[in-house]
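Sanity check

After download, print the first record. It should look like this:
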Amino acid sequence: MFAEHMTSVLVTGATAGIGLEFAHQLARRGHGVVLVARNEARLAAVADELRSTYAVEVETLAADLCELEALRRVEARLADLDRPIELLVNNAGFGLKDRFAANTIEEEQAMLDVLVTAVLRLSHAALAPMAQRGRGGIINVSSVAAFLPRGTYSAAKAWVNSFSEWAHHEYAPQGVSVMALCPGFTKTEFHERMEVKRGDDWMWLEPEFLVTKALEDFEKGYACSVPGAQYKAIRTLTRLIPNQVLHRFQSIGRK
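Expected structure tokens:
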């Protein structure tokens, strides 16, 4: 059903990492792509690459999702009934290196705006036309951090998981699929932007594997996708270990 009906998809944070991989894999399937990111030069370069490689229609929307006016432009594109978007990938995001009190409140607010407010507003804009058509889907990129009590990033991603699970059940009768994707460590620019060294061991996933598994799980109708056996195991353990123990373990690690 996903492949049969899909026309255009919109991907936020589409010029690097997981978002870029989503753009490539969806364009390879023949879907038109709307790319959303802050950097206009990178948007243009990715758009040219997708057009020349896959011969698909590509639109670009330069938008900083911390800014309300920019968000409204993306919302308007999602709500355009004459140019329907049938899959929204809410992928844009970033993390903060320091602990909560060491960050400025402006930094914390900006992260919350991208990780939560943008997901809320863009999902709201997309769901009404999708439900009206009786088909469509949303993939909200969350994190395995959502299963762990680790500061405001984890709290924001826990909101994404909870919202996605609710929307999955709420809109399924109207033909709309919603799924939270919970990556673990992935070989992207995410950690470099935080000025944190990226690893290369068995815990680190390739973006191609991650997105391939995510799309497979989405087509199976999953409410949540956790690619990688190691991260499925971590998710299971967090269900068994009380939060008090997890808090204690993390406190020891900070000393």
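If your output differs, re-run the checksum step. Summary of this record's structure: The CA atoms of residues 6 and 86 lie 6 Å apart.
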